[in-house]
Specification:
Elements (H helix, E strand, L loop, with lengths): L6 E5 L5 E2 L15 E5 L31 E2 L4 H7 L3 E2 L3 E6 L5 H14 L4 E5 L4 H11 L6 E5 L3 H11 L3 E5 L16 H18 L3 E5 L12 H5 L2 E6 L6 E9 L7 E7 L2 E4 L3 H5 L10 E8 L2 E13 L7 E4 L3 H14 L7 E7 L11 H13 L7 E3 L2 E2 L5 E2 L4 H10 L4 E5 L13 E5 L2 H8 L1
């Protein structure tokens, strides 16, 4: 009598396994995430033959590198985020909200590669070939070197790679791929993990750079097990509001470059346009002499970016004031508001505070602390900051203004954008250098910052 197939329950959020169904995952705490999957048993009685030794260990100083190990994609902002170009044999995971423009970005990158003479393959599990062609014509990304196919069977894709031998491969999306050897449905933890593992082995063996497009969950993380992000070489997030024009490509993991670089794009009717000067774009619609508006600088990788911080402080009729923060760390803003209460004597506990980073940018750098304090103080006092003034610096719990890094590049970028006055940390004043037409003033405390501005 044949025994029934053994089943286990796997959490679709973290990959945790359990012998029976549970409403709540014991590891990640997610509700209703355990899905039943059958185990595939190997044949009994067969002894495992050790594999033949194919790869020999070599001294690391004996490995030679070639110039063609990294090549350009034809999209400058995309190359910047990758660290200077695409590395042969690399596995890149790209995530983003639905409709943000991931497929559009991939088509434009593949068209740039095809225009440079490289043969590329776009595998879609969500669209038909006619739909891809229609969108490609609208984006003007039609090329004879760009091959498209609608396929979800991983075995068929592997056979297709042996036949076509492309230089670059795109899988859109990894959640639609399935392996016939597994009984689970496409998009499950087992299918995503197995598909990513086979594609990774293929990329390392053949040297074909592979892009995996991934869906994201409601929390903003890429759907599937966290193992997926550990397996790939680079993880990129395509961020931005679908109702907003600007899109930001950010690297959160990169084995071949910096993880702080960003690429800025503008969504237009015929696709994404590169933004080589983000500061000018983010400040293009800035209101002049408006209370609550302050310009500060942040460093994204090697690039200094000027952003506008906006604050609105208004009295509240409720017992608990509201704190609505967009583009900034909400806990950081609450901390700085408490410092202003203690050190500046501003009674903000009875006021609602709304803050926003103009242009859809997200800033996590402590160097914008002085900008946050200045914007809140400007709105609270209803006094504007001079339009030619830029501020930056880190604020401590005792109200001191601490030094920040890369002060020269920050001042140079502000001077290039036409700012003639800068409020900088006192400790940075001696190292800031002299910028053409820009006067720098040092501040050691938040009280000195507010005194200098107002």
């Amino acid at each position: 009598m044949r025994k029934p197939a053994k089943t286990i329950y796997i959490c679709q959020a973290c990959g945790s396994q359990a012998p029976k169904w549970m409403g709540k995952c014991p590891d990640c705490g997610r509700w209703d995430a355990m899905v039943e999957e059958r185990l595939v048993k190997t044949e009994q009685g067969k002894t495992r033959v050790p594999p033949a030794l194919q790869n020999q260990p070599v001294p690391i100083d004996a490995v030679t590198q070639k110039d063609e190990d990294r090549f350009s994609t034809g999209v400058g902002e995309f190359d910047r985020v990758l660290g200077g170009g695409l590395v042969t044999g690399s596995l890149v995971l790209i995530g983003g909200d639905p409709g943000i423009g991931k497929s559009t970005l991939m088509l434009q990158v593949l068209c740039g590669l095809a225009s440079l003479g490289r043969r590329v393959l776009y595998v879609s599990g969500e669209e038909s070939v006619r739909q891809i062609t229609m969108r490609s014509r609208r984006l003007e990304t039609v090329s004879s070197n760009l091959l498209v196919v609608a396929e979800t069977d991983l075995d068929a894709i592997m056979a297709m790679l042996e036949k076509t031998r492309p230089d670059v491969l795109v899988i859109d999306s990894i959640q639609t791929m399935y392996n016939a050897e597994l009984s689970s449905v496409p998009g499950s933890v087992s299918q995503v993990r197995e598909s990513a593992m086979r594609l990774m082995l293929m990329a390392k063996k053949t040297g074909v750079p592979t892009f995996l497009v991934g869906h994201v969950t409601k929390e903003g993380a890429i759907a599937g097990p966290r193992l997926l992000e550990h397996m790939v070489d680079t993880v990129l997030y395509f961020e931005g509001d679908r109702q907003h024009l600007f899109r930001i490509l950010r690297a959160v993991k990169n084995r071949f470059g910096s993880t702080n670089e960003i690429g800025v794009f503008e969504m237009q009717g015929n696709g994404l346009r590169e933004i080589s000067n983000p500061s000018a774009i983010f400040l293009s619609e800035r209101s002049i002499n408006a209370p609550g508006s302050v310009v500060t600088t942040c460093i994204e990788g090697t690039r200094p970016v000027l952003v506008e911080l906006q604050a609105l402080v208004s009295s509240t009729s409720f017992g608990t004031p509201r704190r609505t923060i967009l583009g900034l760390d909400q806990n950081r803003v609450a901390l700085l508001v408490a410092v202003m209460e203690k050190k500046l004597g501003m009674h903000l506990m009875g006021h609602d505070i709304f803050m926003n980073v103009a242009g859809g940018m997200r800033v996590d750098e402590p160097a914008v602390d002085v900008g946050i304090v200045s914007a809140v103080a400007s709105s609270f006092l209803d006094q504007p900051v001079q339009e030619n003034t830029v501020v930056f610096g880190e604020v401590g719990l005792t109200g001191e203004v601490r030094a920040v890094g890369q002060i020269e590049s920050r001042v140079r970028e502000a001077s290039k954008m036409g700012f003639s006055r800068g409020i900088v940390p006192q400790a940075n004043l001696s190292r800031a250098g002299i910028a053409d037409g820009m006067a720098l003033e040092g501040a050691a405390t938040v009280a000195q910052v507010v005194e200098a501005l107002f």
